[in-house]
Specification:
Elements: H1 24-29, H2 91-104, H3 106-130, H4 134-143, H5 149-192, H6 200-207, H7 211-231, H8 233-242, H9 246-253, H10 257-268, H11 272-294, H12 299-304, H13 317-354, H14 356-363
Length: 375
């Protein structure tokens, strides 16, 4: 027996005393190995093993990742809230934007085009009836082969004077109709790019105060092209291209006429041939479609080509009215296309040079990426 009253161990052995800080009960439960023997190591804690015996890798510690705000991809632009994407545009984007605007706002676009086309055709018809060249044409036709050169010259001068007078009236009517339609469609496109709703009354009220100065701008632009065309074709291309964006700049930036011309030159500089090519293509498309539409309404004049070449075609009043109807239909359908292409081209040049796409995205409520940080 030991001093503590417990059973004694094997002979020659003593029960080890508990160490400081170690509970006696735990120590008593642990068997004491014989002297000279090393106790076996404790059994390792059991771990889960797969049937194949491989130990699975430790699970990665979860890491906190702050939520990232989704921004539009710069490669595809800042989205498309309206009729065009907010990025530098290519030719397809510009033409598609014009067609999309005509389809989406067709009541306003074709309504304004019809009003201006009727106004233009009415002024042209009145001018043709007031400056009647039918009598001069009939006298030239009745002269016959026995007429002298002086008689032919006098009659031709009379026809030429009447033609110039009627052409001047027609030019004024065209400029007036173009001015009204351009001002209205420019305001409309400014809203359509952002996808904002707009009514006919709102667009007309916003464009009306600028129409009279815009008419002066259009007259100056047309005279510059005509004067340049008298001397050579190439100089006419220069004012035609450099000042082509003056009308949308005047409406949307609300500056003066001279400021609009300077803004147009600044936006076109460095991209002269690109702007000229797009404008020329839009004009060719419009002219081609207009000619197809007006051919059935000019059937009498068309048949005169295959008639007697010695007989001069003299249009009657009915022919003039029918031709005016065809012109109204053609201008209603085709007229807005060129104006919308010009406005979209102006917006595209500003997006390329001045980052207008970011301003338009903010105005449309689209989140824009933060500026890149410098290292």
């Amino acid at each position: 027996m030991t001093e503590t009253g417990g059973p004694s161990g094997p002979e020659g052995t003593e029960t080890p005393k508990p160490q400081a800080g170690e509970p006696a009960e735990s120590r008593a439960d642990t068997p004491t190995p014989p002297r000279g023997e090393v106790p076996p190591p404790p059994a390792p804690a059991q771990q889960w093993q797969s049937p194949s015996g491989a130990t699975p890798p430790p699970a990665p510690l979860p890491s906190y990742q702050p939520p990232q705000q989704q921004y539009p991809n710069w490669k595809v632009g800042l989205g498309r809230p309206g009729v065009i994407p907010l990025r530098p545009l290519n030719l397809t984007d510009i033409l598609d934007g014009a067609v999309t605007a005509m389809r989406k706002y067709w009541r306003m676009v074709f309504g304004a085009a019809a009003v201006t086309a009727v106004l233009t055709a009415a002024i042209n018809l009145v001018g043709l009836l007031l400056v009647d060249t039918t009598a001069d044409l009939e006298r030239i036709r009745d002269l016959g082969p026995a007429a002298t050169d002086q008689e032919l010259m006098n009659q031709m001068l009379g026809v030429l004077g009447g033609t110039l007078a009627s052409s001047s009236i027609s030019l004024f009517a065209t400029l007036l109709g173009t001015t009204v339609l351009t001002g209205f469609l420019t305001v409309l496109m400014g809203k359509a790019v952002l996808g904002k709703p707009v009514t006919f009354k709102e667009a007309l009220r916003e464009a009306t105060p600028r129409l009279l100065p815009l008419l002066g701008l259009t007259v100056l632009y047309t005279l510059a092209i005509m004067v340049a065309a008298i001397f050579c074709l190439l100089p006419a291309i220069i004012p035609y291209t450099f000042w082509a964006l003056a009308s949308p700049a005047f409406i949307l930036e609300r500056g003066t006429v001279m400021e609009a011309f300077r803004r147009s030159v600044k936006l076109v500089s460095g991209m002269f041939w690109r702007v000229f090519g797009i404008l020329l293509l839009a004009t060719v498309i419009s002219s081609f479609l207009a000619s197809i539409i007006t051919i059935p309404f000019s059937f009498s004049a068309f048949l005169s080509i295959f008639g007697d070449l010695d007989q001069m075609y003299v249009p009657s009043t009915g022919d003039l009215i029918l031709q005016s109807v065809g012109t109204v239909i053609a201008q209603t359908i085709v007229g807005p296309f060129t104006a919308l292409v010009t406005v979209i081209l102006y917006i595209d040049q500003r997006m390329r040079r001045e980052g207008m796409d970011i301003e338009l995205a903010r105005a449309a409520g689209i989140a824009t990426p933060p500026p890149p940080q410098a290292w």
